[in-house]
Amino acid sequence: MTGLGRDLLRILRGDALAMAGAIIIAVYCVVAVIGPYVAKVGLVSDPGRAYEGPSWRFPLGTDAFGHSILSELVVGTRPIMEIGVTAAIMTVFVGVTVGLASGYVSGLADAVIMRVVDVFLTIPGLPLVLVIAALIHSSSPLVLAAILSIQSWAGLARAVRSMALSLRSSDFIEAARGQSVPLRHMIGRQLLPNVGPYVAIHFLLAVTGAIYAEVGLFLLGIAPVSGTNWGTMINIANSQGALYSARSAMYLLSPMASIVLLQFGFVMFSRAMDELFNPRMRVLA
Amino acid sequence: MLSYILRRSLISFFVIFVVISGSFFLVRMMPGNPMQVLYQQLVQQGGLTPQEIDAEIKVYYGLQPHGPLLSQYFQYLADVAQGNFGRSIAVSSATVAHIIKQALPWTVFLSAASLLVTFVLGILIGTIMAAFRKGAMAKVLTLVTSFFSAVPAYVSALILIWQVAAIHHFFPAQGAYSPSVPVGFNLAFIGSVLDHAVLPVTAAVITGFGGWALMMKGSTTSTMGADYIRASKSWGLTQRRITQTYIGRNSMLPIVTNLALALGGLFGGALFIETFFTYPGVAYYMVQAIDNRDYPVMMGCFIVVTTATVLANFLVDLFYPLIDPRIARPGGAARGAAERRKSEAAEQATAQPGVAA
Amino acid sequence: MGSGDAVLEVRNLSVDFALPTTRLRAVDNVSFTVYADDVYALVGESGCGKSTLAAALLDLVPEPGVIASGDVLLRGTNVRSMTADQVRRARMAQIAMVFQAAMSSFNPVVTIGSQVEHVLEAHPEVWPDRREGLEYFDHLLEMVRLPGSRMRGRFESQLSGGMKQRVAIAFACVLKPSILVLDEPTTALDVVNQRLVIDVLKDLREKLGVTVVFVTHDLSVVAELATMVAVMYAGRMVQIAPIDTIFYDRRRHPYVQALLSSIPNVLQPGRAARSIPGQVPRLDQLPPGCRFAPRCPLAEQVCLRDDPELIGDSHHNAVACHPLNRHNSAADGGQELVPGRAVNGA
């Protein structure tokens, strides 16, 4: 693991963009953790302070209620990151479990699992998420995360299965089987380390995908929410006519910039991960 | 070849069947079953006999609210097979089928235009990045495409509306055509339609082309390293021939596979784009229906969208053997090859968030 | 042996790999001459630069390789001073290559026949009438013992490994090249197909008069096929000699001796095969002096210090070895070398 860490550091040092991505993600994580302690969004509105421009007190200005936009952004980071990461964990867990199981059992069970995966792969993901979110109508972050990962596990499952299959026929598994190494050991020591890198990259991408869909849900007002997050900010800005008046530009732009920056960070960082793991991937292929 | 087509169409049919069945049970079995909610509402309104309430619900959902689940299910299947999705709750006197029939052409038009522009632009930029992968331009292009692939559809749509339409009034940002032109096959109408399509298409292209470009770059770069490319050089072929038939065709293979998968993602983006541009397509009505708790319309839109995606997948499957002869050759190889292709595509697509999202 | 015209002459050729931080010399100042009647074998362990050398003949060294210096003469014309288009035309028409990866050297989405047509189209001066070219290809296919016309409509993925290798050989001959270069033509094949490919190459040489140059690490193939042998070690040419010298004369380079001992049953059945101790040095960690010295049973102090030169007639018979050349210059060539003063002596 230390070797991997060192490799990652080396790649990050060599690739300024990947480094930037890593820093962006780190900053967002820190903000998500400490955000609610350092920033507060008042409940009372203060019309006298509405639509103020950037100042020392309000670095990004204020919204229609006189609240600090920066504070809202900071406070809104945690729910977004929380749900995004939870959804990605669920995606990876289900995807890897189904993929490994399917690759291991083979035969009829495998065929059935793969047909189910095919169905999920073909169904357009976001509409499915929307429909289910609308039907279930739950404001629990866990349920929301589960809904967000309803489709994204399928691609991972398919990829993991094909890797598991190619590993199954590879020499070291043969050798391990020849020496009657227990199954648990084979999965833990042989399979996971080989599938792991791919899963790590997929995890990052699953976070990106979940955050994209999640903000979209809030933005369309489909998922019920409590409290501030970027999606609701855009939604409110939009309904207040921010698009048609320059006054509320900051209120509209700030959350959008936050999302784009975070997504960009994930894209750049996953590139570095890809580079880190690619030699191993090629050996596999 | 025939068995290949048969196999593919069976799978497509199966997916559509699963989606329709899933839709039925999803609505019927949900906590707070929408049909029961409607039933309660009608009871509370009063003034209706139980028979009238049942008849009312039958109109909206096409189902007997108190019948056994299985007979409801078969009734539903039969209705959907005939294009009967029930009646809208929010829009009075409109059948779901009618709404979809009006909306679908707009979505097809917008999606096709978006996909075409996105695809061509992405392939072009991806090829340039692969061809000049050592220069400074490739670095800049990689940065730019990575950035745009991180922009969600709702951001690009809102920014366009805000900057281009609301502030500078370059293009209209609402509707599919101007209400002042006569609908029909005339120049004013076609011009208006194109004018109204510019911003929605641009919004889709901004979020989409980056993923294609990065994928194309990866595919072309790996093709260029293939043994047969080096061999074709040793044959003294002209650069043009090598680029077209040897690099070009082979690097397009994974791209074409992803074309079908991308349709689902494209429609995901359309949910936001059509909504913000109030573009009267299926995605727009679907979001409206969700807002209004208009479940018959919502499920109808969902089934139609999914069916369209499955059919598009099927079409790509059908044409794929034309560009890759390894698929669909007589014998057992076809199945394995098709499977492999899908797995590779899944790997590729998940590696490119812009396309998968 | 070595009669007829010189069809290919390589002079002082060096190929570098330009890595981000350093430049490694993969082929170092190599010279040799191939005559029309030769079947020329380039021999060495993997990583010795023989494949790179073969690719360099027609400027096909894969990145990051670059030809650093030297000349390649095709029937007296220097390839290195040709224009890019002249080089393109010379490819396959004068020197045809069958790469080591012949298994994957056809475009998977185009039929074999279309690829022949692409070749004919790129070299209109060889077969002005493409139909004749295609018929000639069918004829070649029969010569490599494959059913002619039926192969053309096939895709690469429809051919077995052994078939692919033979199709690739027939394919390479379609423009009637004067030289056919094959990189490890038998390596990935089973014994039956190896035999078939060797027979096919003998046939082609006899019937078409094509000069065969092949790269291999397998001395048993060399024994079957070659008339001349050039042995490379770590980017250097260490011995050039007729086949008989390599197999029956004691004046062979200690590396060649070691290679021979490492194959079982070629000449001395019953003797156990011995692997060569140590490893081929990495290009960025070359020893001073003779590059083989650290593994050489005959190595002396001078070998560890001074780089041996290739001494002798570099067209026919030359060797780069201090002890050997000292004995040669003492004009008592037949005397057996005794590892008396050897530093690595057993």
Which key features would you list for this structure?
heterotrimer; A: 285 residues; mainly alpha; MetI-like fold; 11 helices; 76% helix; B: 357 residues; 2 domains; 14 helices; disordered C terminus
Characterization of the model:
The complex is a heterotrimer of chains A (about 280), B (about 350) and C (about 350). Chain A has 11 helices and no strands. Chain A is an all-alpha fold and about 280 residues long. Chain A has a single domain, classed as MetI-like (MetI-like fold, Orthogonal Bundle). In chain A, helix 3 (about 70-105) packs across helix 6 and helix 9 runs parallel beside helix 10. Helices cover about 75% and strands about 0% of the residues of chain B. Chain B has about 350 residues and is mainly alpha-helical. Chain B is globular, with a radius of gyration of 24 Å. In chain B, helix 7 (about 155-165) packs across helix 10, helix 8 crosses helix 10 (about 240-275) and helix 11 runs antiparallel to helix 12. Chain B has 14 helices and no strands. Residues about 330-340 of chain C have low confidence and may be disordered. The longest helix of chain C has 18 residues, at about 190-210. Chain C has an 8-stranded mixed β-sheet, sandwiched between helices. Chain C has 2 domains: about 5-230, Rossmann fold (3-Layer(aba) Sandwich), CATH 3.40.50.300; about 235-265 and about 285-345, no CATH class. Chain C has helices at about 50-55, 85-95, 110-120, 130-145, 150, 160-170, 190-210, 220-225, 245-250, 255-260, 300-305, 320-330, and strands spanning about 5-20, 25-35, 40-45, 65-75, 75-80, 95-100, 180-185, 210-215, 230-235, 235-240, 310-315, 315-320. The radius of gyration of chain C is 21 Å and the shape is globular.
What class do helices, strands and sheet pairing of chain C give?
alpha/beta
For the biggest sheet of chain C, the summary is: 8 strands, mixed
Tally the beta strands of chain A: 0
Can you identify the CATH superfamily of chain A? MetI-like
- Sheet-strand content of chain A, in percent, reads under 5%
Give the helices and strands of chain C as they follow along the chain: EEEHEEHEHHHHEHEHEEHHHEEH
- Principal-axes geometry of chain A comes out as elongated
Judging by the overall fold, what is the CATH architecture of chain A? Answer: Orthogonal Bundle
In CATH, what is the homologous superfamily of the largest domain in chain C?
Answer: P-loop containing nucleotide triphosphate hydrolases
Question: How far is the first residue's CA from the last residue's CA of chain A?
Answer: 23 Å
**Named CATH topology of the largest domain in chain C:** Rossmann fold
Assign the structural class of chain A, choosing from mainly alpha, mainly beta, alpha/beta, alpha+beta, or little secondary structure. Answer: mainly alpha
Helix content of chain C: 25-40%
Q: Helical stretch count of chain C?
A: 12
